[in-house]
Amino acid sequence: MVNIVVLYHSSHGSVEAMAHEIGDTIESHGADVKLRTFEKKNEFDQIISKQDLIECDALAFGTPTRFGMMAAQAKTFWETTSDLWLKGQLIDKPACVFSSSSSMHGGNEATLLNLSLPLLHHGMMLLGVPYDVPELLNTTSGGTPYGASHVAGKNNSNQLSECEKRICRAVGTRLFNIASKLK
């Protein structure tokens, strides 16, 4: 069975909703999905461990945008993974990224690229959203070729749009398919 970690930080629920959309899609294909966070906000949250990364076959990673960069909680965690990097323990594992911002031009693409950097340094294989996903060309909210994204609105009041959900599902399906082929 394919084991996929969906790792996220969510401040107001948007990235968490995306994580669940991606995770539920992966699970519907028959994979074992582990939802992980960087900090425990409720009784259901499970904190990421380096062992989770070592044991997974693939990774979906997301945070909200913070001035075009990943959330500090994520950066702090990745800075502890040099031992995995030195041993090459994440090399050739497929990965994808996802993010949310308050506005359409609030830094989602820059954040997705920033989220990609530690994954690339670890030798992971980064998967984007190909243009055979029709919603990528039709969205008026989130969604980029770099990864799934969401526009939460000024007060974080926007729910995931149908296009954003479909892009999340496409990302989850692609991650599952590639991980399955590699396993």
UniProtKB/TrEMBL annotation:
Entry EC number(s): 1.6.5.2
GO cellular component: membrane
Keywords: Flavoprotein, FMN, Oxidoreductase
Pfam families, per database record: FMN_red
Domain annotation Flavodoxin-like: ranges: 4-175
Record bears the keyword Oxidoreductase: yes
Enzyme class: oxidoreductase
Molecular functions per Gene Ontology: FMN binding; NAD(P)H dehydrogenase (quinone) activity
Annotated family: Belongs to the WrbA family.
Protein name: NAD(P)H:quinone oxidoreductase
Species lineage: Bacteria, Pseudomonadati, Pseudomonadota, Gammaproteobacteria, Alteromonadales
